[in-house]
């Protein structure tokens, strides 16, 4: 058994144990049912909700908003990262700001975005980008910094142009670190957009969860929370596996 498989099985075992423990705690009424319901009831409620299509519109609204914010975050963050990497003086000035960026309470600007763009998806997209773009910039800088100099010299020896060097040398070497940025941008986009829907929105998963919470509809609330958790975890695990594969291939190169 490989080390990676052993780690994966250990994580699955811990997760299964936690779910079983939570199920037992709820079934034995050690926790008030108004506070927490058993995981089996969350799954059953989620299944019936997905089958009925009751929240299909909210799911589509949130996922489409996240997808737009993610694509824009990746494109803008990568372009800005390349530009900052090419300008050392600018980078020296921006490094402290980028390092401390996430200490800024970005959510306080959401009402301002609503006032400027209106009560629609645009403020949520801007909020998701406000979280995702800096992560992509930092990962792009990290990836470009880690391109081995010997590869760049080899490209010069073979007289590769800038585009050829970027396509055949820089991007393959930096790709694992760029995937880290994509993974972070995805997580931050979900956090920013769903939290924004909690605060002020007329649709979306965050709005549906907040509405269920206000109406004491625990089954609906926990089912939707479980759905978000499963989807985001699945996407991040997929990107993590791809990232690890690229890292191993890069180490062998």
UniProtKB/TrEMBL annotation:
Q: Which residues cross the membrane?
A: 12-30, 66-87, 99-119, 125-144, 177-201, 221-242
Cellular component, GO annotation:
plasma membrane
A single Pfam family it belongs to is: BPD_transp_1
Say yes or no: keyword Zinc present.
no
For this protein, the record's CDD domains field holds: TM_PBP2
Whether Cell membrane counts among this entry's keywords is yes
InterPro entries attached to this UniProt entry: MetI-like, MetI-like_sf
Q: Where is the ABC transmembrane type-1 domain?
A: 59-239
Cite the source lineage: Bacteria, Pseudomonadati, Pseudomonadota, Alphaproteobacteria, Hyphomicrobiales
Q: Which family does it belong to?
A: Belongs to the binding-protein-dependent transport system permease family.
* Compartment(s) of residence: Cell membrane
Keywords, A to Z?
A: Cell membrane, Membrane, Transmembrane, Transmembrane helix, Transport
Q: Which GO terms describe its biological process?
A: transmembrane transport
The species this protein was found in: Methylobacterium nonmethylotrophicum
Bilayer topology? Multi-pass membrane protein
Name used for this protein in its record: ABC transporter permease subunit
């Amino acid at each position: 058994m490989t080390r990676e498989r052993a780690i994966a099985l250990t994580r699955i075992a811990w997760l299964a144990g936690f779910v079983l423990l939570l199920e037992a705690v709820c079934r034995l009424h050690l926790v008030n049912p108004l506070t927490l319901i058993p995981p089996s009831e969350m799954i059953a409620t989620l299944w019936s909700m997905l089958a009925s299509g009751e929240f299909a519109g909210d799911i589509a609204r949130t996922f489409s908003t996240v997808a737009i914010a993610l694509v824009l975050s990746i494109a803008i963050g990568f372009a800005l990262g390349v530009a900052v990497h090419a300008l050392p003086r600018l980078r020296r000035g921006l490094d402290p700001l980028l390092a401390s960026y996430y200490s800024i309470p970005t959510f306080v600007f959401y009402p301002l975005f609503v006032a400027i763009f209106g009560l629609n998806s645009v403020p949520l997209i801007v909020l998701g980008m406000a979280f995702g773009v800096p992560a992509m910039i930092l990962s792009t800088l990290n990836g470009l910094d880690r391109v081995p100099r010997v590869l760049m010299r080899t490209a010069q020896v073979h007289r590769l142009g800038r585009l050829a060097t970027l396509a055949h040398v820089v991007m393959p070497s930096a790709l694992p670190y760029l995937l880290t940025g994509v993974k972070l941008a995805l997580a931050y986009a979900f956090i920013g957009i769903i939290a924004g829907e909690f605060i002020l929105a007329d649709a979306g998963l965050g709005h549906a969860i907040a509405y269920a919470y206000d109406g004491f509809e625990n089954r609906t609330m926990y089912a939707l929370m479980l759905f978000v958790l499963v989807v985001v975890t699945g996407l991040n695990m997929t990107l993590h596996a791809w990232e690890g594969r690229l890292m191993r291939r890069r180490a062998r190169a």
